[in-house]
Design goal:
With about 250 residues, the chain is an alpha+beta fold. The longest helix is centred in the first third of the chain and has 29 residues. The strands form 2 sheets. A 6-stranded antiparallel beta barrel has the order 1-2-3-6-5-4. A 6-stranded antiparallel β-barrel has the order 7-8-9-12-11-10. The chain has 3 domains: about 30 residues; about 80 residues, Thrombin, subunit H (Beta Barrel), CATH 2.40.10; about 120 residues, Beta Barrel (Thrombin, subunit H). β4 and β5 form a beta hairpin. The chain is globular and about 65 Å long.
Length: about 250
């Protein structure tokens, strides 16, 4: 009996080691496809402002992010442009991109990158993935402060749930929430911690690296400012099936 227990423990250790080794390999492949999304203003200081994360798909010239990450307006008088930040740390480079498709409903945006193509991630098929699936996401949490250094978090799919998020009081219900109540759609609730700046990060299968969703928002317990100090550990992601829909609606073939 003792030998059987020892054998089971040994097998569990080997499986755990293999999973860690697989994730190390996957993360190394994912990082070159992760970019920052923000603005570049040559006449201001700082010139570069990071608003969120994006990732490369298709032929290496398409970038996916959240619609809410995109700047609402660009100041032409200051020569301000939407920017994609490529690379890491001080070696990061600024590239321009054009918005070619958005979905406010699913909070998704697709950009076309100018210049040389980048390594691309592979999108999973459109089916929902089961609860308990091990996932990871790589992006720039609190990137405006910590800089352009990609960070990876991991967790599991905790639930597939409607987009409706409960609020403490009726006074916090917005018009947007009321509209979504009429026709909610399903998103992934994650047992993983994301932070401001992670919006738009690719959520991928830990084993294959295939993109299964896009990090969208974090459940806030108190205030947006407190989410950094007291994260809820509950994160939401948009399933990749809605990204496939956006691509089909705009007749974009990858």
């Amino acid at each position: 009996m003792e030998r059987l227990v020892q054998w089971i423990v040994l097998v569990a250790m080997l499986v755990s080691f293999q999973c860690q080794a697989d994730l190390v390999t996957v993360v190394a492949k994912v990082k070159p496809s992760v970019v920052g999304i923000g603005t570049h203003t040559p006449t201001s200081r700082p010139q570069n402002v990071l608003r969120g994360t994006g990732f490369v798909i298709g032929d290496g010239s398409y970038i996916v992010t959240n619609a809410h990450v995109l700047p609402e307006m660009l100041d032409d008088a200051l020569l301000q442009k939407m920017a994609v930040f490529i690379g890491s740390g001080r070696e990061a480079k600024v590239r321009q991109a054009e918005t070619i498709a958005t979905s406010q409903r699913y909070d998704l945006a697709l950009l076309k990158l100018e210049g040389a193509r980048l390594p691309a991630l592979t999108l999973a098929q459109g089916a929902f993935i089961p609860d308990g699936t091990s996932i990871a996401f790589t992006g720039f949490p609190i990137g405006a402060v910590l800089g352009l250094y990609p960070v990876t978090h991991r967790g599991i799919i905790a639930s597939t749930t409607p987009t409706i998020v409960p609020v403490p009081s009726a006074g916090q219900i917005s018009i947007k929430m009321l509209k979504s109540l009429r026709n909610p759609y399903l998103v992934y609730q994650l047992d993983a911690t994301a932070y401001p700046g992670n919006s738009g990060s690719a959520m991928y299968d830990q084993k294959t690296g295939e993109v299964v969703g896009v990090i969208n928002k974090v459940f806030v317990q108190e205030t947006k400012e407190a989410v950094i100090e007291k994260p809820s550990g509950i994160t939401y992601a948009i399933p990749v099936k809605y990204l496939h829909q956006l691509l089909q609606e705009h007749d974009i073939s990858l």
